[in-house]
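Need the bound structure for shikimate-3-phosphate, inputs here:
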Amino acid sequence: MLATQTERTIRPARNILGSLRLPGDKSISHRYALLSALASGTTKLTNFSTGADCASSLACAEALGAKVSSLENGVIEITGTGGQFQASAVPLDCGNSGSTMRMLTGLLAATPHAYTLVGDESLSRRPMERVRKPISQMGAEIALTDGHAPITIRGGKLKAIDYATPVPSAQVKTAVLFAGLQAEGTTTVRETVRTRDHGELALRAFGAELERRTDSVSIKGGQSLQGIEAVVPGDISSAAFFLCAAALFPGSNLVLDALGLNPTRATLLDVLTALGAHIGVLNLEEKHGELIGTVQVNAPAQGLTGTTISGGLAAQLIDELPVLAAIAPYTQNGIRIRDAKELRVKESDRIALVARNLRAMGAEVEEFEDGLDVPGGQQLHGAEIHSGGDHRIAMAFSVAALRAEGETLIQGAESAAISFPEFYDLLEQIAER
Ligand code: S3P
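Answer from helper R.:
Posting the output first, comments after.
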């Protein structure tokens, strides 16, 4: 958990210019960390996420018996347990990380020891029934506390299931696949929206075979994993803040190298293009199934247009919606977001907090149960912003502040470190004043 609350003043900018390489993707880092603990042999990871969330996954891996050490040049070495997780005398602390808690539930489902999974105040409010249901159907004993953490889990002999996820969630899909890897028979997960597929790609990278169909993925139980050497691509959800900032300033030029461009994650680039931004992609390559490339963004001279985000798009852009809503007042026609009810059960109620903070900056905004209408053509003014301890809210409103009149004070600014500790320093580097 991050200790003291800090505030940050964000001054308006004149332009966004520069070239950056970002720390590793949070979703991929979690999966590599957890699978390396299950695998036999040693895994070496370069450009592992620097966020506190992924440190929670690494700490849990260590508590389960994996040996974690930091080498030079930021390389992390993890020696796995070969599937023999040790008992833990203390609860496994998932901090603020829903990914750690949900994916661990799947990973531990076949282990005979009893574990307790705990999290901070925000994580202890988030829904866990979505992961309890399939994993207990497979045979693990799982108890929640009123639908939430703390979770107690005692694993055992698992049987495969065929599971259709009721809410689109890559965390749940991955948890079921992690358990399926250790079950008897072939486990299938069906999803109506294709959520991020890093779990599938990571399992393949560590040596498992999976079968992918249009709307489902299957894994045969009893396969063993081997450690890997991998470079984690830059985090596109962290990049989103800078890409959106650059899209706001005619004359901007931002280049991001070695960025993760997995098609299940790169929908933001399509949205920015639809809004009129010029996006170039260069130097594409594939590593362990993950697409990596250089992205260049230039803002349109006449400003961004407007768009509606709904249906499956909302699920694919779930982490980018706060920043898109925060820049929406500066577009010509505004941004409408629907079918994004999941935003209400993230690290904070992101629909409520985005609406509240936009209003604090003087914007007109309409809130719906599953989204927001943010009209365009609005000039915002600096204000006091409340992050609610949510990293993406702190960063989204730091971006909105760049085009506001006057200074903006971000309360709870430290929460950015959950996914992106370098955020403010890098923002200062690319913001021209
Ligand atoms: C993630 C999936 C998404 C996302 C989260 C990371 C993942 O959550 O919001 O930041 O790594 O699988 P859900 O699975 O709850 O949609």
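Comments: Residues 26-38 form the longest helix (13 residues). The first strand starts at residue 7 and ends at 10.
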